[in-house]
Specification:
The structure holds two protein chains of two kinds.
Chain A lengths: L1 E4 L4 E6 L2 E6 L5 E4 L1 H11 L4 H11 L4 H17 L3 E4 L9 H7 L11 E4 L3 H6 L2 E4 L1 H4 L9
Antiparallel strand pairs in A: 1-5, 2-3, 3-4, 4-6
Helix pairs in contact in A: 2-3, 2-4
Chain B lengths: L32 H19 L1 E8 L2 E8 L4 H4 L7 E2 L7 E7 L22 E6 L3 E7 L4 E7 L4 E6 L7 H5 L3 H10 L3 E9 L3 E6 L6 H10 L3 E4 L2 E5 L4 E4 L3 E5 L10 H5 L8 E5 L1 H4 L6 E12 L6 E5 L1 H16 L2 H17 L2 E6 L5 H12 L7
Parallel strand pairs in B: 2-4, 4-8, 10-16, 16-18
Antiparallel strand pairs in B: 1-2, 1-3, 5-6, 6-7, 7-8, 9-10, 9-11, 9-12, 12-13, 13-16, 14-15, 17-18
Helix pairs in contact in B: 5-10, 8-9
The chains are: A alpha+beta, B alpha+beta.
């Protein structure tokens, strides 16, 4: 059992090693520092927590066991905020460019991955929510006029 | 600071006419989105035949957009905010929008089959999209608006139940959601940001409502800079360029204290009871409204307690946090969110970002920004 990004509700971007994630369902958004951003990158690449911990330990100055424990805590936070969801399987994928660059040089300082939550734009959804009707729900016409 | 939505006042109960909409019972069948579009197009054609057509043309982000109004009831609602982009009809049109209203033309429209019945107490949108059609039903206590976009024909239909009941945020930023949908197909990104500059280059002002975008933008206009917008702009990457779309400014009513020079405009405002004041700047400042310029930097306004205004370098992620959530949460649906995030991230990677720490002396704001634009960079060693 692994986890995956809760697309399309969660949209994200990693920039200069840090991440931003927006939850389109709740209107909350999150910033994630460098360690957490690499964890997020691993989730997007469908890695399980063991492989993610190994990669974190390759890039950052941290023991792999500590990394694994803290990644699990961080993952619970992501699940709680519905930014990721459980899925049946996880598999490995090639090293990220961040890791390839970093493994050749000195390891980066480690810090516990954290999710910084912002709730100041939920009003946008509450005042003017957008409800998408997916193509298969929209047509054909039904006699009772309901979707 | 309390967050102020760009659509403050939505959800406020207003009187609405007993117009209703036609029920499906006894109406023509619309088995597909294209069939539904055709039924509504016939309604427009009937209105156009009965009330005549008024045509207007606008150049928006280098695209020629033709607005065809059946009758004139929506003309004064839709056009004032985009009048600075008006052009003569030269025969080439990229996008045509047909507009009509229900009350003055006694035209009632059927809701699409997927739309829930009943009018909500607050504004909300239902969006449907397939390969060819995007349909947005924007309904609420003050008005109901149907937007239908045929992406294949570059043709849209816009119907409003009552033109007289359009709220200030619609009149200040007309056709926002429809243009967002069509322009993104043209690789033009609708963005929640202000923009000011000189002739060929300028800065974006980004951040949530209440962060100081409008105050800074208006101060720059009065201080001699060109004004592209205070709230929404259009962005194209490679190279980064901003285009103006609305020449309005939306301010809290007490902002008159900051801008005594605009006292007359505040007194003659069109929506005196609204929570925010919308000023139509093209009326008074037509020579200072810019159609667009190259983006030199992204500025993130922050209101401070200091007197002086200054710039401080911001990281790319700080800039994206200021820019992306308010844009995506206002404009995008789930199917558009990730692509929009990618476009905004590309912009943030391409130009430097700075915090604009706003001082209490408003007249300093344009001086700081103008100096920054002219010198080409901030002399902060970064």
């Amino acid at each position: 059992m692994g986890i995956k990004v809760n697309a399309p509700h969660a949209v994200s971007e990693i920039i200069e090693g840090e991440a931003i994630v927006v939850n389109l369902k709740t209107g909350c958004y999150f910033s994630i520092g460098k360690v957490g951003a690499l964890v997020w990158d691993c989730i997007m690449k469908n890695l399980d927590s063991a492989d993610t911990a190994k990669r974190i330990a390759k890039v950052f100055d941290v023991d792999v066991k500590i990394a694994r424990r803290e990644i699990d805590v961080f993952t619970q936070e992501l699940l709680k905020e519905s930014l990721v969801i459980m899925e049946d399987s996880a598999s490995s994928s090639p090293m990220s460019s961040v890791e390839e660059q970093s493994s050749a040089v000195q390891k980066l300082a480690y810090e516990t991955p954290r999710l910084v939550k912002f709730e100041d734009m939920q009003d946008l959804l509450l005042l003017d929510p957008v409800h998408e009707v997916h193509e298969q729900q929209g047509w054909p016409w039904k006699k009772d006029g309901t979707a | 600071m309390k967050f102020m939505s760009s659509r403050d006042g939505r959800g406020k109960k207003m009187e609405r006419p007993d117009l209703g909409t036609k029920s499906e019972e006894g109406s023509e069948r619309f088995d597909t989105s294209v069939g539904y579009f055709e039924i509504l197009r016939k309604s427009f054609e009937t209105a156009a035949s009965d009330f005549g057509v008024v045509e207007r043309h606008y150049k928006i982000a280098n695209k020629i957009i033709e607005l065809r109004f059946a009758g004139s009831s929506l003309l004064s609602v839709i056009t004032p905010a985009i009048e600075h982009l008006a052009v003569q009809n030269e025969g080439v049109v990229d996008f045509t929008v047909c507009l009509w209203d229900g009350l003055s033309m006694k035209s009632k429209l059927p809701f699409p089959p997927w739309h829930n019945k009943g009018l909500p107490l607050k504004d909300e949108q239902k969006r449907y999209s397939d390969k060819r059609m995007t349909i947005i039903i924007d309904s609420g206590p003050s008005r109901t608006c149907f937007n239908l976009l045929d992406k294949q024909q570059n043709l849209a239909l816009v119907w409003v139940d009552d033109a007289k009941n359009m709220p200030y945020y619609d009149v200040g930023a007309p056709l926002r959601d429809l243009l967002y949908c069509w322009l993104r197909i043209q690789n033009v990104q609708f963005v929640h940001a202000g923009a000011v500059g000189v002739d060929d280059r300028g800065v974006l002002l980004v951040g949530k409502g209440g962060s100081g975008k409008s105050t800074a933008s208006l101060a720059c206009l009065l201080g001699g800079l060109k004004y592209a917008s205070d709230d929404y702009v259009l962005i194209q990457n490679n190279p980064p360029r901003v285009s103006s779309i609305y020449s309005t400014v939306k301010l809290r009513s007490d902002a008159i204290n900051k801008f005594p020079a605009l006292e007359k405009m505040f007194k003659n405002q069109r929506f005196p009871g609204a929570q925010k004041t919308v000023l139509f700047l093209n009326d008074e400042f037509s020579g200072k409204i810019s159609q667009g310029f190259a983006i030199h930097a992204i500025l993130i306004p922050k209101i401070t307690l200091r007197e002086e205004t200054r710039l401080r370098r911001a990281s790319a992620i700080e800039s994206l946090v200021a820019l992306a959530p308010s844009t995506i949460l206002q404009l995008a649906g789930e199917s558009d969110g990730q692509k929009d995030m990618g476009e905004l991230a590309a912009l943030v990677r391409a130009v430097p970002s700075y915090f604009l720490e706003l001082g209490s002396n408003i007249s300093e704001i344009p001086e700081v920004i103008l100096k920054f634009i002219k010198e080409g960079s901030l002399n902060d060693g970064k």
